Amino acid sequence: MTSETTSPKAPVFIKAPSRNATADNAPVETLVTEVIARVRAEGDAAVRDYSRQFDKAELEVFEVSEADRLAALEELDPQTRADTEFAITNVTNFAKAQLGTLSALDVEILPGVHLGHRNIPLDRVGCYVPGGRFPLLSAPIMTIVPAKVAGVKEVVACLPPNAHRAMIAGCHLAGADRIFRIGGAQAIAAMALGTESVPKVDKIVGPGNAFVNEAKRQVFGPVGIDQLAGPSEIFVLADETGDAEMIATDLLAQAEHDVRTRVGLITTHKPLADAVLAEVERQLSDLSTAEIAARSWEDYGEIALVEDEAAMIAYSDHVAAEHLQVHTVDPQGFAKKLSHYGSLFIGELSSVVYSDKCSGTNHTLPTMAAGRYTGGLWVGAYIKTATHQWLTEEGVKQVAPPAARQAASEGLEGHRRAAQLRLDRLQA
């Protein structure tokens, strides 16, 4: 049995989730449709009204001035600034290394038929920076820095007006060209459509709540988006070598993000499953964020017991978790057998939290099994690969006859004439 051909055999749940992560989205969809329509019709006035309604913010001017940016930077704790710059350096260096793998292409596919492509940075990108319950200084780094490395001409950042001022400093340090204090669906609509204050962008990236996600879904088409991100996820794959304390700690570190975070352990070893269950309960007793983490664990946490390594791989590929940690006797070898995930953390020393904050890989990743068809945000997301071709007379002689014959067989006389014209002139 393989995960490509059949569904994995159902595991035994030592702890099963009590809720389905897919919620009814109809009320969100209706409200977001209204927000986008009003921003399209009223521009800044609609954005200002929604900021008053949803964020309790009275804003005459949305854009953060250069003076205010520098003031926010001055207010930033020196150690926090140093740690932020450390993260920016790592994310920058990794994005540059990724960019180095993208090459222009020119190839003579037939005599005289030259094909190729160029990698062209986008003109203007909008980065949504979530406010959330905590000042997530890593958030602007992950969306803004790769855009600057890619060569995007202008990076626009939007963050909720009530976001911690350290977030403004984070956007500034990451390299945002313009920063706007606009949050929620109205921020997505403003960047997608353009208003008197906010320029229209070519692509919108960055995670947010259900309203932000729905807004990205609705504006997609005239503008690009990175992905539709749901609540965060972490799964750990472990055999009998797994460390219960370490696994429980990593699960709860992710669970404290949001009450809808999905966390899980997939293991072949029942004693480890039982130990992790007990360890999670023990750690929740003195975790300062237990009000959030406990709800996440109760509603969406799971511990799945499977028969063997093959079943572990099959169920993991079925879940396609956003963050996937491998805690097995041979983590490097095991990792090569996995196909579907957002980002992989190989070996027990590789915690998700390192990537979340500062190690260099991007933490904006696919959720809700989207890891089956896409990876996370990266420098290539800010670049379009556009093809080109040019032909010599010999090239025309190679492709014109089959092109004309094919057009004729399809009954497309205009196509046939266009294909034949250059050949006729060459032969004349």
From TrEMBL:
GO terms for molecular function: histidinol dehydrogenase activity; metal ion binding; NAD binding. Binds 1 zinc ion per subunit. Keywords: Metal-binding, NAD, Oxidoreductase, Zinc. GO terms for biological process: L-histidine biosynthetic process. It comes from the Bacteria. SUPFAM superfamilies: ALDH-like. NAD(+) binds at residues 128, 186, 209. Zn(2+) binds at residues 254, 257, 356, 415. Substrate binds at residues 232, 254, 257, 323, 356, 410, 415. One of its GO terms (cellular component) is cytosol. Its cofactor is Zn(2+). It holds the Pfam family Histidinol_dh. The keyword 4Fe-4S does not apply. The active site is at residues 322-323. Belongs to the histidinol dehydrogenase family. This is Histidinol dehydrogenase homolog.
